Amino acid sequence: MGRIIDQDTLALQTLQDYIIIANTAKDYKMSIEDFIDVIQQKMDFSIPTGVGVTINGQSYTTTQLDNARDIFCDIVRFDLKWDVVETTAGVYDWTTYDTLIDELKSRGLIPFAILDYNNTIAPYSATSAMHGIENATQQAGFVAFAVAAADRYKDTLMIFEIWNEPNLAAFWAPAPDVDAYCDLVKAVVPAMKAADPYCICVGPAVAFVANTHSFIQSCGDNGIFDILDACSVHPYKDAEPEAGDAEYIYWMCQTEIDDSAKPNMPIIASEMGYSVNWTNVDNETNRKNWLARKVLYNMKMKDIWPYSTVQNQIIYSLWNSEALPGDLTHNGFGLYDYEGNIYDSGTFLSWVLYNLQGYTYSTDVSNHLYCLSYGPFAESTSYTWRGVGSATWIKVEKESGTFDITSVKITGPADTEEAPKDFTIKDESDSVLATFTSESFTSGEEREFTCVANGISAIKIDITDNNGANNTRIAKIELMDGTTSLVGDKTEDDGSASGDESGWTSSAKDQTKNDYHLKFTDGQGGIKYWSWTTGDGHYATFDGNTEYIYETPLLTQLATPVTTTGNQSISGTKTFTGTVKIDAENDAVLEGQPIHLTIPVVLLNDTIVAGNSEAFYIAPFNMTVTGVRAALAVAQSSGDIVTIDVNVGGTSILSTEITIDNGEKTSDTAETEPVIDTSEDTISAGDEITIDVDQIGDGTAKGLYVQLTGYITPST
């Protein structure tokens, strides 16, 4: 079938074209308008965005596909195997994959097909399916298979990945051969583009192992980034996501992409995850937390390398394998066990993805936060804050009264590349006292910088250049009045104080590895600030754990520095319109800011039961409620319709309760819309919000979330 939309005008060419696109839109369960947008995205070579999961493309179940949809994934990745499609030379049987792709489309999921591996039938006669391409006959056969796939699915929005982990002998036996792989890519991609100019081709899908860097470099030297549409990598590591490993593999890719014909090429994390059987992961609690943080961390990669947007990320895997129950290598990754029971990792991930529906990542505001308090004068403790080449500061202040100063002593770190290079010393009002440029420290060197001021209450060292290192470190700071250290020091031998440190505090502008403060927007004025922190703040707990994820206005929304009681400094860049107020609790709020407060009532795999106070939540801020909605993970089949009430302080805020009709998963389609009682629509920070399930039917409904929408109101 030919192209059905004119590339320049997007005009449908004939009535028959309209019927074709209408039927295809129906297959995807989309409106015609939305489907045309999808086609335009494909024509623009735009890589589909979102989070996905991997499945076994030959032995999946429809329940697994339902699971992928129900945990709010966008993409499903699977092997589209040459030797499954071509079992007789020259004859292609697409039945297995036609069925899978139709099933995915019917659930609104985007297929991500890995074109792999070799073929043992004559005339190809590969040593095994897992052997790399060994000769011209095999290469020609694989190219023909790939072209046939591109042609068959050219009216489907999907991604094709060329092979899987060719830098491992397990997938390119007997040993990885980067030149042979690149030759394959350079033969496959132009041929696929000839069959479908708009097909999306990605690679090299490398594993993160010892040869990764050299393999990616050789891929760049061979020119495959000139013809691929995205660079795909697998950033696995048995370490917390912020340990720097992901940044390193993305940096490898970006270095080669910068020298290609497509320097703005996106990066795809086409396979990633954590196994509960790994040494450092160790348990499901860590896996749950690290996986959710990995997803958020990938989203903010563009703040480090502007073009290295991790366009989509695919989690390995959806289910553990029933066929390999004792295989710890493969069976520790699943979001579900092989009997279909969801792990905490899957539940928590679905909570994150559910709340991000309709929102796209905007920016990371972490490095605007005034957040950490150190024991600043301990010899054994360095001031450390992450941020690639970013400006930062550290501040020492007197809790009451003022002091005079003649100089500041700074002891540099052991690693001289992480020492401050250009910095300015300021007082508590950000008035400049002294500026220093092109400074350098030998390892552990103590240097004294003249800085004369009287009657001040704080010193702030504002660092604007740290030699481009990933971290900035200062081993020690002393405030000097002549030869006297105002705050004292700890000696190296016994740690006892040689001066009085009481009455002093220190803080830093910090981007610590476990603190996320990410801004998301919905394109219609709605903003969500998602924070994951073990520090204080407004937050909602999830499942009784100590990690928090919340949506709330942050102090960083202020345009200019402001100091509130308790030495809480606030700084940042103005990114909003509206009136900012400081409420009675010293919280900065944007008056009228749209807000969405989502409350998990029943976890995804759990059956809903009727009862009062099925969920309990403490309001994190003041808001006026303007809308309510609810969603089920599994729709109810029959009986009395699911009916839900929302109470604040024990009083319902609804004059007409929320209902979800049988066979439906959200209240958005209910015959009767909920109505808010305008005399009860105000919520104050600290109010108790409870959710009642007043009525259910046949008991088949599972998983319940309730969302309150409205706007923020400052307290008086």
Key terms for this structure?
11 helices, TIM Barrel, flat, 5 domains, 39 strands, Jelly Rolls, 716 residues, alpha+beta, 8-stranded parallel barrel, single chain, disordered N terminus
Give the class from helix and strand content and strand pairing. alpha+beta
Number of DSSP helices? 11
Radius of gyration, whole Å:
29 Å
Shape estimate = flat
Helix content: 10-25%
If strands are numbered along the chain, what order do they take across the biggest sheet? 1-2-3-4-5-6-7-8
Describe the structure.
The structure is a single chain. With 716 residues, this protein is an alpha+beta fold. It folds into five domains: 44 residues, no CATH class; 313 residues, TIM Barrel (Alpha-Beta Barrel); 140 residues, Sandwich (Jelly Rolls); 67 residues, no CATH class; 119 residues, Jelly Rolls (Sandwich). It has eleven helices and 39 strands. The strands form ten sheets. The chain has an eight-stranded parallel β-barrel with strand order 1-2-3-4-5-6-7-8, surrounded by five helices. A six-stranded antiparallel sheet has the order 10-21-12-17-14-15, with no helix packed on it. Strands 30, 32, 33, 35 and 38 form a five-stranded antiparallel sheet that branches. Strand 7, helix 10 and strand 8 form a beta-alpha-beta unit.
